[in-house]
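name: query_chain
kind: protein
chains: 1
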Amino acid sequence: QVQFVESGGGLVQPGGSLKLSCAASGSIFLYTMGWYRQAPGKQRELVATITSDRSTNYAVSVKGRFTIDRDNAKNTVTLQMNSLRPEDTAVYYCNGRRSIFGRVDDYWGQGTQVTVSS
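structure:
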């Protein structure tokens, strides 16, 4: 089982930037990695994903503002967040998912709080 630990959250003013990091306890080489977020009273939603061959996908609400990246050698995934808005306030979760020999492995981190407020 792989464990993920997020870091980099905090309080930032509207228009500011933050960079989230997710460190894995094992290899992420075959995993599709993603960032999800959950705001109070709302369902968890996809923010961005990056596959093992570095194909990326973004939620419409963050496209052009957020960038997901991965470093397989360091077993880390990052989310650069620019031009932050109050509606980006949420707990951000790192996710790793892979399908191997018919089994799906799906792991989550504990989350890191991002608050965008003046």
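note: The chain has a mean pLDDT of 97.
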